[in-house]
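Example record used in the benchmark description.
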Amino acid sequence: MDYGKVATEVIQAVGKDNLVAAAHCATRLRLVLKDDTKIDQAALDNNADVKGTFKTNGQYQVIIGPGDVNFVYAEIIKQTGLSEVSTEDLKKIADQDKKFNPLMDLIKLLSDIFVPIIPALVAGGLLMALRNFLTSPDLFGPQSLEQQFPAIKGLSEMIQLMSAAPFMFLPVLVGISAAKRFGANQFLGAAIGMIMTTPDLGGADKFWNIFGYHVAQTNYAYQVIPVLVAVYLLANLEKFFHKKLPSAVDFTFTPLLSVMITGFLTFAVIGPVMLVVSEALTNGIFWLYNTTGALGMAIFGGTYSLIVMTGLHQSFPAIETQLLAALQKGQGYGDFIFVVASMANVAQGAATLAIWFLTKNSKTKGLSASAAVSAFLGITEPALFGVNLKYRFPFFCALVGSAVAAGIAGLTHVVAASLGAAGFIGFLSIQAKSIPWYLVSEIVAFAIAFALTYFYGKTRAASVFKEEAVLASLSDADSPKSEGEPVDGATQEVGLQEEVIASPLDGEAVELSKVNDPVFSSEAMGKGIAVKPSGNTVYSPVNGTVQIAFETGHAYGLKSDNGAEVLIHVGIDTVSMNGTGFDQKVAANQTVKVGDVLGTFDSAKIAEAGLDDTTMVIITNTADYSEVKPLAAGQLAHGADLLELNK
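Model output (structure tokens):
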């Protein structure tokens, strides 16, 4: 990938002066724009290096892919002169004009706090999984590997120590991240986490006697919610003292007072209350899992990708850390959310892979291959937004596969012992005894999603891919010839000239943006206009050559003597009629004049097929002109001025 070139193309598509701020995550450029209507969406859709685009939470996001996005972002910063900002800062910029939404704000808050500490939890979790491999019997024989090879016992114990540490001292990690999010000193946030987990604490049955009031010496190791509230209090105290204390004593007494007051209130009030809330939440999740079982897992699996579309899944790490912490303490079962995410990601990847077999579009083929691999490894956005939601039916086929697979995982009690890559390699995070059923569930997710997508695409949605093949063949026919080479019997190509394109139909002019077909309304094929026909005859709109006369009779590709490349597409999705109701009167390479009959069609038969006969007139070499200007409005006759092409 040419990172500089991709960055330039993205900047041109969104408008350099339209860019307010830019950041990036693992796969996407995140842009805040002044005016979304100024985006050249067709340019991005046709860019082979762009995996997809979508807008959410005030951000316009451009999917580039893991690894590459870092370098493209660096080039954008270099070319635009914008300052680098974090995703958190970008969210603040994007939120300036947004209305208050308590639920989404809470989700963003949890996401901002927990996403940065996930690498530490993944490391600890995978070490925990390795420990399970070493100590679980019946995996490699009646005895565990540790029992079979006593020499590795010391290494195994060391791995246990390393795996437990990130969860035992989770309040320290949360304290650092929460302090940053709440605007407090991160080291003071860490100090609060350390105070809540220090080994000197005697436990809940030990007390400090403070003026006759007994304060429990509870150790908050593995806890999340108590430290979140404690650091929120710390941040507000720190800001208060910074404002009220003179600068001469601020440096010394603000940290002292903030930590001392927060520490006291944490052990006296915040900790005990939030511990009850935390345990109630965890027990509630366990109850839900126990009560709904396989059915609940199936419903969760069938809706997980829908949740990803809304961004609500960003709050799940806060719940998962509670589940994993409970597992570390010998309570609960483990993380079932990770299992559901893995099923959903594999299913979406399988549906995307099926599109690779179905499509004839070279860009879609390349995108679907890379997006499928990405989804199998746990990153699903390119598959979701770049492929499956574009065609719609693969997305829903994947939901079915995910639901069935998650139900099987629920029935067999598959749970994760750690966070990790939610995909095929997610077995590394699964409890050792559950790995076989995890792999079975993944295969089921893949098989169902792939089969449903492929066979639906081959039957009910076959016309979609036929249309892509038609448009691809037109693009191939319109590709530049070598200098001086004639076009199969046509006259020698001349220089591009300004000209006016006539209407090929009798009917009513319709703006292209109002056409109910995203391929045309988005101007992905080029600029132009549509006509709602009142007659049944298609006439040549130019003096020139018929480059392609499709055997189905529903579309014609012409090249005018002045260099304009014109696509006339009769109806929407009419390729599915396989020529029924169409009568083609010309052949490829035939010379035509304005007003010559190209063919006829039967609007009644188009309507019987449940289709729309609105006809698109597209200039497929739009990029060669400075302006493609619609001239017609309202009713018009064939031969009337329709489009003006300016150099």
